[in-house]
Amino acid sequence: MVAAIQIENLKFKYAEEDVLKYINLHVPKGSFVSILGPNGSGKTTLLKNVCHLLKPYEGKVVISDQLVERFKSKELAREMAVVHQGANTEFDFNVEDVVLMGRFPYIKKFQSETLEDIAIATEAMKKTSTLHLKHKTIKGISGGERQRVMIARALTQEPQILLLDEPISHLDIKYQLEILKLCKMLNAENNLTIITTLHDINLATRFSDYIILMNHGEIVEIGKPFEVMTKENIRRVYEVDVEIVKMDQFENPMIVPI
Questions:
Q1: What is the rounded CA–CA span in Å between residue 44 and residue 196?
Q2: Dihedral angle of Cα 180, 150, 33, 183, to the nearest 10 degrees
Q3: Which of 157, 166, 176, 244 fits a disulfide with 85 by CB distance 3.0 to 4.6 angstroms?
Q4: Residues near 211 by Cβ (< 8 Å), separated by ≥ 6?
Q5: Alpha-carbon torsion angle 33, 34, 40, 41, nearest 10
Q6: Which of 81, 83, 61 is nearest to 165 (CA)?
Q7: Which of 66, 45, 40 is nearest to 163 (CA)?
């Protein structure tokens, strides 16, 4: 399978503490991948290395057959969009202006947005069901709406890859499902490669093509949800016992702590 992202022998440390330990990873183009693991397992640090916010101590990250550090910032932003945990804007812009910020990689110095840029932003708002919010301020909408706006801004970059760091944290179950269903739709319809960190095991199992299970800065297991989320792996990583329950309406099983 063609790789959207290839990681080889990646190692990262803060000061003298190893946070990521020789990560090797092949992310197929067009796949939906969730990274799971306890707090402090290295999930967010891995994402930050992928998008070049952090630089590895050893190893390499390859995006579309090119080392990530060789991309200029605007080139990388056309290839990859990132929605950080609790993403927000410092100023209280209206929603349309926030979404249009996603066109920055395409706008030359001293130029403003074109009609094409506005059309692309409008289409992104339609896809994320945020067009009706365009004149509202970003701080005047709900948390679930704000998260959809941030995804719309990311889509306006027209990326091949979307990275999401805990996109459903602090949201109630209604908005959690809305966000993940939206991401799955974008993944299927746009062939958009999505990598997200999540805490909810069952939601990750339901929506993902592949799961990366991490602990102590290492990858414990990679594979299809039913291959990775076994009683043994969950006990090993989370130190809890579970039952694996098959439900007819879902392809992958549900995990129930006992």
A1: 9
A2: 40
A3: 166
A4: 33, 34, 35, 36, 204, 205, 221, 222, 223, 224, 225, 228, 229
A5: -60
A6: 83
A7: 45
User: What is the CATH topology of the domain spanning 3-89+160-257?
Assistant: Rossmann fold (3.40.50)
- Residues for the chain: how many in total? 258
pLDDT tens figures, 34-71: 999 999 999 999 999 999 999 999 999 999 899 999 99
Distances (CA, A) of 22 to 25, 149, 183: 10, 35, 29
Q: Tell me which amino acid residue 70 is.
A: R
Tell me the per-residue pLDDT of 153-198, one tens digit each, with 9 for 90 and over.
999 999 999 999 999 988 899 999 999 999 999 999 999 999 999 9
- Domain chopping of the chain, boundaries: 3-89+160-257
Going by C-alpha positions, the residue among 139, 131, 136, 128 that lies closest to residue 92 is 139
Q: Is pTM beyond 0.85 here? A: yes
Place of tokens 């209206």: 94
Q: Which residues contact 94 (CB under 8 A, 6 or more apart)?
A: 134, 135, 136, 137, 138
Give the separation between CA 20 and CA 17, rounded to whole angstroms: 9
